[in-house]
Structure formats: structure tokens, C-alpha cells
Amino acid sequence: MAIRVLLVDDQPLLRTGFRMILEAEQDLAVVGEAGDGLQALEQVRALQPDVVLMDIRMPRMDGVEATRQITGPAKDGPAKVLVLTTFDLDEYVVEALRAGASGFLLKDAPAHELVQAIRVVAAGEAMLAPSITRRLLDKYAGHLPSGEEAVPDTLDTLTDREVEVLKLVARGLSNAEIAADLFVSETTVKTHVGHVLTKLGLRDRVQAAVYAYESGLVRPGAQ
């Protein structure tokens, strides 16, 4: 079955462009559009999409609050949220990730990246682009802990290797890159990542990366 996508952006021209790209793919179906967060909530309830392509800055209700309501405890369906950002202008992207977004994508990303991101998110994975993640978290370093704060007790549940893996996830490394860095197999890395998410009660790699910075385990800008 095709992946059902809802387009949410206050610029009709952008929605039209996204629709043309997505409808050219046999496994993707655009089931609706919305011009603001409130319309997005209505459309999610009515259309039950699999993935919501969500803009951040919109009238009436922004993408952060809409994401929180779509993915929160009272959610009406299984919709995943993929946030769209212009990066240099959107200071609320980290908040959207905290609110429950499964990842983010630059608005000027190539068409094939948009298509792949939707497929990844629909499959229940996190769209965590390594280079963008590092730049994003560094850009908002002022909003995150400096690393001087005490590390939370929950980290004590992790093994030393799991802490290593969490740090590398926070740096935006893929499973293959982590495997190469630690001289282990990708399967081993996937197992470690799964343990980290389970022990810390996190949904995906996006939340893990934000957690690592918020907890002070990783310093913004650190290599």
C-alpha cells in the first residue's frame, strides 16, 4: 500500500511543488494539504495520513504545537511528523524534535532526499541527517546545557559501550559510521542503539541525540 502523506505549509506554491515530486512515486500518495497547524490537526483526524510533512512557521498554530498534538499521548492516529526547515531562519526546530517529530529536512533538499526521508519516517525510523544534525545542535548551543551540569542518573543504566554509542549518535553518525569508529559490526551497533532507547525511554535516534545534549553528556560543538 502507498504511504499516505499530508502536506502542511502556508505557501501554496511549495505545497504544489512537493505534491508533484511525491505523486511521481508509485509508493507515495498525497492525501491532503493544510496551510496552518489547526488545519493540519483537522486533516490528520479526517485523513489518517502515515506521514505529515510539517512546516515550522505558519499562522494560527505553528508546526511545533501541531507536531506536539499529532504525536502526543492523545493522538488520533499513527501519523509520523517530518519537519521542514529553512535552517537559517527556524530557531524552533529543536523544539519540534522534542515535541515528537521523527526528523527534519531542509526545504531546498533534492527531490530524492525528500522521497527517501518520507519512506524512512513511514517505516518508523528517524530521519537524522548527520551533517545537518551537527550544525543544527551547534547552532542552538545557547539553548542547551554547557556540559558543566551533573549527568542525570538515568545514564547509570547504560554500559560504557552504550554511552559511547549514544555520544556518536548525538554527533549525527550513522550506524555504519559508528561501526567503523568502534570496530564492530552494524548489527552490533543496532543492538546497542536499541538498548539505549529502551533503557532511557526514548522513541528514536532524534530523541537520543537531543537527550545527549540536554543531559550534558555531549557538549555543543565538541568533536
Automatic annotation (TrEMBL):
What SUPFAM superfamilies does the record point to?
Answer: C-terminal effector domain of the bipartite response regulators, CheY-like
* The keyword Lipid biosynthesis belongs to this UniProt entry's keyword annotation: no
Q: Which UniProt keywords apply?
A: DNA-binding, Phosphoprotein, Transcription, Transcription regulation
Which positions bear 4-aspartylphosphate? 55
Record SMART domains: HTH_LUXR, REC
PROSITE patterns given for it?
HTH_LUXR_1, HTH_LUXR_2, RESPONSE_REGULATORY
Annotated GO biological process:
phosphorelay signal transduction system; regulation of DNA-templated transcription
The record places domain Response regulatory at 4-122
**Which molecular-function annotations from GO does this UniProt entry contain?**
DNA binding
Pfam annotation, one family: Response_reg
Which intervals hold domain HTH luxR-type? 151-216
The entry's protein name is Response regulator transcription factor
Organism classification: Bacteria, Bacillati, Actinomycetota, Actinomycetes, Kitasatosporales
